[in-house]
Every structure is written in C-alpha cells, then in structure tokens.
Design a protein that fits this description.
The complex is a heterodimer of chains A (about 200) and B (about 160). By secondary structure, chain A is an alpha/beta fold. Chain A contains 7 helices and 8 strands; from the N terminus they run E-E-H-E-H-E-H-E-H-E-H-E-E-H-H. Helix content of chain A is about 35%, strand content about 15%. In chain A, strand 7 and strand 8 form a beta hairpin. Strand 1 of chain A pairs antiparallel with strand 2 of chain B.
Chain lengths: ~200, ~160
C-alpha cells in the first residue's frame, strides 16, 4: 500500500494511546516529532524495557512503536507483550524501528511478534503507511509453541507462477518443456535423436 | 505434534483512525516534516558529539582484534543512524549503516582491519561538512559500500 503524500484523505490519531520505546534521546526525539506531526496526542515515552512493561501492564495501548534497543531488548519487550501482557494489549499493533540489525539478532527480530520492522531513517509517510496498514489489516494471531504474534503470511497464492516448489516438480516441468519443443531445442540436429532429459525425470 | 491456535483480534486503532476530525494525509506529513526541521540543530549537535566519541574510540583501538571496543564503536554508530536524514545529511545515515555492517561482519568473523574502520570514521567526519557536493558524497558512499560488501561476501562464504 503506498500513500500519496498529497492525499486529502483524513485519518485521526488524536485519541489513540501510543507507547514509544527508545532509549536514546535522539531516537525518541525524532519519533515524537513524527508521531505528533501525524496527530497523535496521547503518548507514553519509555526509555527502558522496564518502564515500557510497567506502562503496558497498567494502561490500554492502541499502538506500540518500539526501537530494537541495544542488545535487542526491544525484541524482548515485544515478546513479553505477546506472551505475558493481558488482553487487549497482547494483541496491540507493534511497529519495530531499527537502525541496524546485527546478524546475530535477525532471527529474534523476525520471531519476536512485531507486525512490521521499519528501517531508520524513518520518513513520516512510511510511518503513516505502516500505522494505517497495521490498523486495518486484521491479521489473525498465532499461538504456537515457539511463536506468538501476528500471522506473518501475507497472502496465500500457492506456489509462485504456478510452478510446483518441489525439486521433482521443477524437473518434470523442464522435461515437459523439452518434449514440447524438440526441434527448437535440438537446433538442426536429427529429429529422430531423443531429446536430452534431466536426470531426475 | 505442535498445536496452533488462531485468534482474530479487532484492533481498536482501526476504529480510532476513522473517527471524525483528524488530519488530511498531506497536512500531517507536512506537519511531521516541520517538526523534524525544528529539532535539526539539536540533532546536528548530537550527531557531532557521537562522531567525536567515535573518533576517540577509534584512537583507542588496539592493533589486534578487540571485541569490546568494536562493540563500543558499533553502539555509537548505530545511535546516529536516522539523525543524518533529519539534519539534511542523508549520506551520513548511509555511511553509518555501512560502518555498522563492517563492525558486525568483523565481530562475526572475529577479525580486525584498522583501515576499514578508519575509512568509515573519516568519511563520517567528511560527510558532516556542509560544503560537500552531492556527487562527492555519493563517491564517498560508493567507496564505503565496496568495503562493507567485501566483508559481507566473506561472512557469506564462511557461513
């Protein structure tokens, strides 16, 4: 979904309760300027994991914008929110912001239960697009042994381009294509000669 | 067998966004842009302070692999990403991202290359000079990306 920056369509964030988590003054300041510019008025500014947990335990939140934080503590907060917080906060839309994700944190970032990861620098239009998307999407929540959070499958369209995704399926498709175009494939060779086949067929 | 449970929550945010009043998209984006502009001087000062910290950290680097100092440099550089754009120096964000990549790759490979670190620190200083033309900044970034991609390839090969 791409929003037009010149759009006159209206949205209202005035009554939404937004929890912001960022431990740096610089990061928090940027985040606050963006969300207040977008019209949000009820903000909880948390600079530590503990403060964010306290707020989420005591108040009903409509949106969380969480930085990954040093050592990936932001991911721990999201995981706590999904597994430990009571309803409705455990289902709250969560946007994760990150400046850089170290290799060692990629799996944590993916599996913590956030809706979206937004790479810094954050453009206000991108933030707004993501907020509208997470509000509207109505994605189901999954509870499995290892993952609690929004369903990460965006759309089920079957295998890409109608081609089976198993290796055997691909080999069959290639063999069928070779059989359908024997002359073109052999390029002037004797048509009586059997076409080359893949070893798996 | 793993059991999977589905829940279909209805986020209140959807209703709130639709309540009468609020802002048109264009106006909200313009307001957010103005807000960010208002913090530009503070952001620039904080970015400069981070650069000074980073330069001092670089001077303290030992000649062999020193994980603690590399982690310290990473923590400094990562804090600056995002501020460059607000300060009207978007190439600083690109340089810092490349710097974080290099530091992360070095820590993954447990290797140290003083020159690869140094070139990023010097580039950060250079890109923060307001007089640098855009084409010059692009050349600097291209050079930095060559360094970080070389390390990325090594990490991929080692994986």
């Amino acid at each position: 979904m791409a929003l037009d920056v010149a759009s006159r369509a209206r949205f209202n964030l005035e009554r939404a309760v937004v929890l912001l988590l960022d431990e740096t003054q610089l990061g928090m300041s940027i985040l606050v300027q963006i969300v207040t510019g977008l019209g949000a008025k009820n903000l909880y500014r948390c600079t530590s994991l503990e403060a964010a947990q306290e707020i989420a335990a005591q108040h009903e939140i409509d949106l969380c914008i969480v930085d990954a934080l040093e050592g990936g503590k932001g991911y721990d907060f999201v995981q706590w929110l999904r597994r430990e917080a009571s309803e409705p906060n455990c289902y709250v839309p969560v946007l994760i912001t990150t400046a850089h994700t170290p290799t060692s944190d990629i799996v944590r970032a993916r599996d913590c239960g956030g809706h979206f990861i937004i790479k810094k620098p954050i453009a206000p239009i991108v933030m707004l697009e993501r907020i509208i998307w997470v509000a509207k999407a109505g994605r189901p929540f999954l509870f499995t042994g290892t993952y609690v959070g929004p369903d990460r499958r965006f759309r089920d369209e079957g295998p890409p381009d109608g081609v089976g995704r198993r290796r055997e399926d691909l080999a069959k498709a290639e063999a069928a294509k070779a059989e359908a175009e024997p002359v073109a494939a052999q390029g002037g060779r004797d048509v009586e000669e059997p076409p080359e086949r893949s070893a798996a067929s | 067998m793993t059991s999977v449970r589905f829940v279909f929550p209805k986020p209140r945010l959807n209703e709130l966004l639709r309540t009468p009043g609020g802002l048109p998209v264009a106006e909200a984006i313009e307001q957010a842009r103005k807000n960010l502009e208002s913090i530009r001087p503070t952001c620039t000062a904080e970015l400069a302070a981070l650069l000074e910290l980073c330069e001092a950290g670089f001077q303290n680097l030992a000649d062999d692999y020193d994980d603690a100092t590399l982690a310290e440099l990473y923590a400094i550089a990562v804090k600056g990403i995002g501020a460059g754009d607000v300060c009207g120096m978007p190439s600083v964000d690109l340089a810092l991202t490349s710097f974080c990549d290099v530091l992360d790759h070095m820590r993954t490979l447990k290797r140290f290359d003083r020159e690869a670190v140094g070139v990023h620190v010097r580039a950060w200083r250079l890109l923060m000079t307001a007089a640098l033309p855009e084409a010059g900044a692009r050349q600097v970034i291209d050079g930095l990306l060559k360094v970080s991609r070389r390390y990325a390839a090594e990490v991929a090969a080692a994986a």
